[in-house]
Amino acid sequence: MPTEYSSKKKRTPKKSIQPKKHTSNPQTSSENKLRIINVGGLEEIGRNMSIFEYNNQVLIIDMGIQFPESDMPGIDYIIPNISYLTENKEKQIVGVIITHGHMDHFGAIPHLIPKLGYPPLFAARLTKGIIMKRQTDFPESGDIKITEFSKDETLSLSPFTVEFFHVNHNIPDSVGVVIHSPAGTVMHTGDFKFDHAPIGDHPADLQRIVTLGSKGVDVLLSDSTNSESPGYTISESVVQRNLEEIIKNIDGRVIAATFGSLTSRIQQFVNIAEKHGRYVALDGYSMRTNFEIAKELGYVVAKKGTVIPIKDVHEYPENKIIVVCTGAQGEGEAVLMRIANKEHRFVQLHAGDSVIFSSSVVPGNERSVQILKDVLMTQGAKIYHSQLMDIHASGHAQAEDLKLMLNLTKPAHLIPIHGHRYMRQIHADLAEEVGIPKENIAVIDNGYVITLDKKKKMTITKERINTSYVMVDGLGIGDVGQVVLRDRQILSEDGMIVIIAIVDTNTGRVRGNSDIISRGFVYLRESKPLLADIRKYTKKIVEQSATGEHTMNTDYIKENMRDQLGKLIFQKTKRRPMILPVVIEV
């Protein structure tokens, strides 16, 4: 039996059962029920995509990418697995709604929309502009059309009625979504925070959230990214005040690094520059692109001449320049790292420059950021970062903001989304604090199918769809799997060695010495004793496996070489390089 959650009475949670994978046959038990499935975003930061399905009619919220982990060498990014939709042709997608213009919420569109048959796309004005700009990088995905919606608009996407509400994030035009279905109402917050004095945006529409919540919210899907941070997320106006306090007391040049999508932060630097007689030079492809789109649509305002091309910085006094760039995460090819390494065409770091890290450190990037700071400090730069003072505000709600959202909407059930298990569990604990029964909170992973019936009962079913990684590597989509990744990991850790043996097919004996090629394993000139052992052992293995008495089996010889040489090399070096045996018959 499935585990049931109901707002009427508490039940003792049953032991978890490993859900079965979805089969292509529709389940009649799901008829007249709203099916809620998170394809991504529940076990990671990114790859956000949620499916809402009623009688084979499907509404999708977001379609984002996930950036690769450190153990995924060569992978560009990961996209949601849509096999549940492509393998079940009876399901009709009535719409895809994008909550805001960040890649982890829309970046998979060029890859997935064609495979889904170009369903209707909906986005707010700035989000639409950013998506359409990115589409120019993917001409092979065809032309897409996006219907623009306003924040007070209602969409009829039968059998769903969709409403929106404005929230704050670190990009304007961020919205939450309310989905009315015959089985009940679901609210999806998107990425959000509450900011009563934002920069380049309006405060979150609390009154509309209350109004929508008062109509009854059966299930709330809510952002969990910052749940472990106590208190309230600081306002962008506080960030601007602190940045201004730093910059007005700096006599020399300012180099500020932040996220390329953080248009509100760019607006802050523009405001400060105009107040204190400085000029802003932007660098970083994504930053320049987002700024131009936001400026054209009126989301960023700058006086003529305030923002100058990066190539013209030498035409102005250094104490009048603020360089705003990407690279705050220590990325090797990003602008700030190129400046630090003296590889930038127009900006060379000087002693006395002030470098501002106006961003948080993404988990996993701590070492690269520290290395970058060391390089900058060694060259005489003065460094400011968010641990010294509040010069960065997260785009995600902290603990008290999450409680406020729960109190404003008063949902019967909660599904914490967007974040690792730890973050979502803390969010669940916060929900219990404000009065939501534990049995009405579903802390689940990607792919679990939750149903909501007309009696407002939420059930975690035994069904689970396929949400395995689909990795993008160059032009390849999904052609790199775990086997390829494992090979790349071996190559990156222990390297590879190629052993080329020339075998006489008449005698089964090796002619001459085997050639050896090493990449990332050992330096051949300094490993002559090891190479001699490998050649000697190769000859022995080949000649034991191939004789003139029977037909030579090359595959069998290579397999023996791989196994036996692997043991020898590990015994000699305690390393496990990839071994590529080559047998040439003559």
TrEMBL record:
Residues of the active site: 223 (proton donor), 396 (proton acceptor)
UniProt keywords, alphabetically: Calcium, Cytoplasm, Endonuclease, Exonuclease, Hydrolase, Metal-binding, Nuclease, RNA-binding, rRNA processing, Zinc
Record flagged with keyword Endoplasmic reticulum: no
Positions that bind substrate: 392-396
Listed GO CC annotations: cytoplasm
Chain positions recorded as Zn(2+) binding sites: 74, 76, 100, 102, 104-105, 169, 191, 418
GO process annotations (BP): rRNA processing
Required co-factors: Ca(2+); Zn(2+)
Cellular compartment(s): Cytoplasm
Enzyme class per UniProt: hydrolase
Residues in Metallo-beta-lactamase domain copies: 46-250
Pfam families: Lactamase_B (PF00753), RMMBL (PF07521), RNase_J_b_CASP (PF22505), RNase_J_C (PF17770)
Family label: Belongs to the metallo-beta-lactamase superfamily. RNA-metabolizing metallo-beta-lactamase-like family. Bacterial RNase J subfamily.
PANTHER family the UniProt entry points to: RIBONUCLEASE J (PTHR43694:SF1)
Name used for this protein in its record: Ribonuclease J
Organism: Candidatus Spechtbacteria bacterium SB0662_bin_43
Gene that encodes the chain: rnj
